[in-house]
Amino acid sequence: MNTPALPPRRLAIAPMLDWTDRHCRHFHRLLAPHAWLYTEMVTTGALIHGDIARHLRFNAPEHPVALQLGGSEPADLAHCARLAEEWGYDEVNLNCGCPSERVQRGAFGACLMNEPQLVAECVAAMREATSLPVTVKHRIGIDQIEHYDFVRDFVETVSRAGCQTFIVHARNAWLKGLSPKENREIPPLRYEVAHQLKADFPQLEILLNGGLADTASIVEQAGRLDGVMIGREAYQNPWALSEWERALFDADWAPDRADIIEGMVRYAEQENREHGTPLRAISRHMLGLANGLPGAKGFRRMLSDPNLLRDARPDLLREAWQQVGKRPASAES
């Protein structure tokens, strides 16, 4: 059952392949109670032909949580949108931004920006199939197409199909010659494109994604637009989530890192008891929690040690945390 009162999308954590699984999302939820969390991209084929529970299972504390889908067949996306509602998600998001070759071979992701009418048909089919909000995450251009009209026309066409929320990764997607990692770093950021979209479509909800890391910039952009979506910085420096929560939602929010550890111990115990989840599947998302603190290197080392992780004892999280504070900060690397 969906959470009855959902917070605004002022802060969202980006869908990141191999990273934002349900264990990662539970960890992030402890740090930022109001942030919107997104699954890794799940292809329609994986849901239609694969293990639905493996892809869609999540825990109630993750709300608000969105399912991101990859696909380009309206009927398949409609089917998967129905599944999203049946499994209790709060939003279904269509990926129109991933530039990987595997995604291009499937004719979806960023290459869909070249087919706005098809995207509109996909959105219409999904909206017909579910009462959930249907949102779109996209780039601002493809390859050498950098003129504003391209993304403006894309948003206008798709919004006519009923999409009210657009998450704008403010870089072009270069479909040839760059890896997915390079596509997150090399094409220049152009935040002004997102700002212009909001000016041209004030009735739409526009979130900015791409390159945001420091709190001042995040607050500024969340103020200029409807919200921000943060990717790698949220994963690699998770404690920053608590600062962003405080800046954007709750000025009194002041969690303790030791309490976060205790929350994850309880979660790991439950996961192991109910699903046999190995501790390493959970601890791998927590390595950045002690960043900047004395003993951080020892904390990371213990939670990455295959011999220590073999026993899958949730207490290992507490033992690793005891390393924090043991060494002077100057000794850390």
Automatic annotation (TrEMBL):
InterPro entries found in the cross-reference section: Aldolase_TIM, DUS-like_FMN-bd, DUS_fam, DusA, tRNA_hU_synthase_CS
Tell me what organism the protein belongs to.
Uliginosibacterium paludis
PANTHER family linked to this entry: FMN-LINKED OXIDOREDUCTASES SUPERFAMILY PROTEIN (PTHR42907:SF1)
The UniProt keyword set, sorted, is: Flavoprotein, FMN, NADP, Oxidoreductase, RNA-binding, tRNA processing, tRNA-binding
| Superkingdom of the organism of origin | Bacteria
Please list the reactions this protein catalyses.
5,6-dihydrouridine(20) in tRNA + NAD(+) = uridine(20) in tRNA + NADH + H(+); 5,6-dihydrouridine(20) in tRNA + NADP(+) = uridine(20) in tRNA + NADPH + H(+); 5,6-dihydrouridine(20a) in tRNA + NAD(+) = uridine(20a) in tRNA + NADH + H(+); 5,6-dihydrouridine(20a) in tRNA + NADP(+) = uridine(20a) in tRNA + NADPH + H(+)
The broad enzyme category this protein falls into is oxidoreductase
Task: Enumerate the residues binding FMN.
Answer: 15-17, 68, 137, 169, 209-211, 231-232
Supply the EC number(s). Answer: 1.3.1.91
Which protein, by its recorded name, is this? Answer: tRNA-dihydrouridine(20/20a) synthase
Residues annotated as domain DUS-like FMN-binding: 13-312
Record family assignment: Belongs to the dus family.
Which residues participate directly in catalysis? 98
